[in-house]
Amino acid sequence: MLSWSRIRKLDALTDLEASSTKTKADLDQFRKKCATLEEELNVMRKERSAARHSLQAVEEERNARLRVEAERAHLEARMAALNDAQKKGRKKGTLNCF
């Protein structure tokens, strides 16, 4: 027959084993949750990075468009000045012919 102290020790050991099993199960559950959250974090970082690259591409395109428009306006002004100079030169040339 088992003594009361021995029964208490067995009960304590059984409780300890149950507690250990529950702790291990909780640990596995937290590891899975952590892995899921880390994956979600990585996806969000990639999305943010893609959005940042997309925003940079839009800004670069806008800056390039503004640069081209400024160059076009400058070229048109130069062409207008050359046309004016040629018109003035032709008038003088035609007057000199008579």
Give a structural overview.
The chain is an all-alpha fold. The chain has one domain (25-98). The chain is 96% helix and 0% strand. The protein has one helix spanning 4-97. The longest helix is centred in the middle third of the chain and has 94 residues, at 4-97. It is rod-shaped and about 130 Å long.
Give a short synopsis of this structure:
Helix content is 96%, strand content 0%.
State the helicity in percent bands.
over 70%
* Terminal-residue CA separation: 144 Å
Note the beta-strand portion: under 5%
How many DSSP helices?
A: 1
Silhouette: rod-shaped
Rg, alpha carbons: 42 Å
Order of helices and strands: H
Largest sheet: none
Q: What is the β-strand count? A: 0
Structural class: mainly alpha
Low-confidence segments: none
Task: Give the count of structural domains.
Answer: 1
Average pLDDT figure: 88
